[in-house]
């Protein structure tokens, strides 16, 4: 038997039913956000609809990568209960203010410890990341392989990176900057990234374009010669 109010979701035009379905899915996501994890029966009771209807929404949301099912602890001698929770992608549907908090902290850091404090922190972070990557690579990895693996690292971090080569240079292009809001205010982030790439590849790396200054992408020109001098000045970073 359907619970009161469930049948009304079946009436109206296709557009109305689609809109109602989206609102139900949004409410379902809100419930999982609020409670952490719930089973289909609990969602059915909270939403005032049948478990069959709830499971249709769960299937669609799982297919979209917004939620995932997992087995909870068995209740007594019964089978383990199937529970649902938000995925990382589902969590991203809820507003976060990480960039604002990050920039606020960096502004306070600069005011408290001087104008070069942000650069020191960014460089320290970059050195830590570089050490982690180098530990994975091992010794004597050729430049081309290091660059391919570094490109994959950036891709996994949502930089939309593409590696190309032309003449005696490689070109590493980031089509997305996941830290754009921070980079627009703190160029130290871009400088630290450029220096980290140069340290990892042990060759000359020059920044030809930056999204934080209005370009459509970030682009690095990388020398194929491992004996090339690694620049330490920031003059090659576009302003």
Q: How many strand elements?
A: 7
H/E series? HEHHEEHHHHEEHHEE
Terminal CA distance: 66 Å
Name of the level-1 CATH class of the largest domain: Alpha Beta
Tell me the strand order in the biggest sheet.
Answer: 4-5-7-6
Pfam family, one: HTH_24
Protein name: Transcriptional regulator, ArsR family
Biased composition (Polar residues): 1-22
Region (Disordered): 1-23
Question: What topology does this entry show?
Answer:
Elements: H1 14-35, E1 38-39, H2 40-47, H3 51-63, E2 67-74, E3 80-86, H4 88-91, H5 98-113, H6 117-137, H7 143-156, E4 161-166, E5 169-174, H8 180-185, H9 188-201, E6 205-209, E7 218-223
Antiparallel strand pairs: 1-3, 2-3, 4-5, 5-7, 6-7
Helix pairs in contact: 2-3, 6-9
Summarize this structure briefly.
InterPro entries: ArsR-like_HTH, WH-like_DNA-bd_sf, WH_DNA-bd_sf. By secondary structure, this protein is an alpha+beta fold.
What does this entry look like structurally?
By secondary structure, this protein is α+β, with helices and mostly antiparallel strands. The protein has two domains: 7-91, Arc Repressor Mutant, subunit A, CATH 1.10.10.10; 98-223, Trafficking protein particle complex subunit 3 (Muramoyl-pentapeptide Carboxypeptidase, domain 2). The protein is built from nine helices and seven strands, in the order H-E-H-H-E-E-H-H-H-H-E-E-H-H-E-E. Strands 4-5-7-6 form a four-stranded antiparallel beta sheet, with helices on one face. Helix 2 (40-47) packs across helix 3 and helix 6 runs parallel beside helix 9 (188-201). The chain is elongated and about 65 Å long. This is Transcriptional regulator, ArsR family. Residues 1-22 have a biased composition (Polar residues).
């Amino acid at each position: 038997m359907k619970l009161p109010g469930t049948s009304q979701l079946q009436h109206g035009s296709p557009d109305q039913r689609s809109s109602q379905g989206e609102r139900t899915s949004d409410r379902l996501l809100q419930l999982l956000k609020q409670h952490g994890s719930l089973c289909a029966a609990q969602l059915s009771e909270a939403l005032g609809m049948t478990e069959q209807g709830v499971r249709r929404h769960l299937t669609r949301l799982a297919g979209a990568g917004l939620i995932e099912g997992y087995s909870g602890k068995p209740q007594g001698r019964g089978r383990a209960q199937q529970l649902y929770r938000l995925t990382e992608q589902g969590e991203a549907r809820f507003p976060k203010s990480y960039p604002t908090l990050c920039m606020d902290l960096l502004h306070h850091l600069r005011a408290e410890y001087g104008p070069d404090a942000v650069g020191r922190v960014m460089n320290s972070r970059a050195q830590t990341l570089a050490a982690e990557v180098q530990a994975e690579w091992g010794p004597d990895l050729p430049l081309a392989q290091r660059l391919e693996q570094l490109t994959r690292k950036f891709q996994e971090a949502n930089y939309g990176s593409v590696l190309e080569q032309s003449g005696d240079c490689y070109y590493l292009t980031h089509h997305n900057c996941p830290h754009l809001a921070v980079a627009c205010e703190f160029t130290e982030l871009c400088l630290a990234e450029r220096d980290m790439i140069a340290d990892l590849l042990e060759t000359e790396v020059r920044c030809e374009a930056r999204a934080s200054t209005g370009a459509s992408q970030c682009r690095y020109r990388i020398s194929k010669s491992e004996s090339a001098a690694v620049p330490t000045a920031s003059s090659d970073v576009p302003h």
